[in-house]
Design goal:
This protein is α/β, with parallel strands linked by helices and 219 residues long. Helices cover 41% and strands 16% of the residues. The two termini are 30 Å apart.
Length: 219
């Protein structure tokens, strides 16, 4: 969304694409889950009177728009990409098929998983943990607006404390809002560490994967 109030800021899309390319050209296999909050948040639609299931499906469609924009941005900088959607829309994306997604990775392509889990009541965070488990990923990297996980909101509290390493159970017990509890629990069960870092800092995701720079690790 960038500095805009709604929709896509092409500068931001291109910036994120270049950040992902840096990871890709360093020989990491990459799967992407992209949210849709810049276009429509299911939970906000519910608060305004839209049926929860319908609202969540609308949010999933928003993630497809973002996935297609990211695919376009990546392919413009010579990064081969495939979009797989959990909701069937064959004209614009492949259906999600696990073995096909693995084959894309083997062929050195990035796979973007769109439409969340394909089910209402599950967030894109949960979709990230689910797909990471299915694809046997070695880690989940969450690119966000802060440097990691804090004990309170660092945007409004100058004394907020950054947790460099924290356990899944502590995140759940302290109700830390980095990802929802379903996503954390699934990552815990699958033993996949979660790295949280600030997407706005150049190369922050690549550095975090390598264990350098500012980030938090949940394990």
């Amino acid at each position: 969304m960038g500095e805009t109030e709604f929709g896509l800021d092409v500068k931001i899309v291109n910036y994120i694409a270049n950040e992902i390319k840096e990871i890709f050209i360093n020989n990491y296999q990459v799967c992407l889950i992209i949210g849709g909050g810049n276009i429509f948040r299911g939970i906000q639609g519910t608060s305004k009177g839209i049926d929860r299931s319908t609202s969540d499906y609308m949010g999933m469609l928003a993630t497809v728009i973002n996935a297609l924009s990211m695919q376009s941005a990546l392919e413009k900088i010579d990064v081969p990409t495939r979009v797989q959607s959990a909701i069937s829309m064959s004209q614009i994306a492949e259906p999600y098929i696990r073995r096909k997604a693995i084959r894309h990775l083997e062929k050195n392509r990035i796979v973007i998983f769109a439409a969340g889990t394909g089910n209402p009541f599950f967030s894109t965070d949960t979709a990230a943990s689910l797909r990471a488990s299915e694809m046997n990923c070695s880690m989940i990297v969450k690119g966000t607006k802060v440097d990691g996980i804090y004990d309170k909101d660092p945007m409004i509290n100058d004394d907020a404390k950054l947790f460099k390493d924290i356990s899944y159970m502590d995140v759940l017990k302290n109700n830390l809002k980095v990802m929802d509890s379903t996503a954390i629990s699934l990552a815990k069960d699958s033993k996949i560490p979660i790295i949280v870092t600030n997407l706005n800092n150049k190369n922050s995701m690549l550095n975090a994967i390598r264990g350098i720079g500012k980030f938090s690790k949940v394990s």
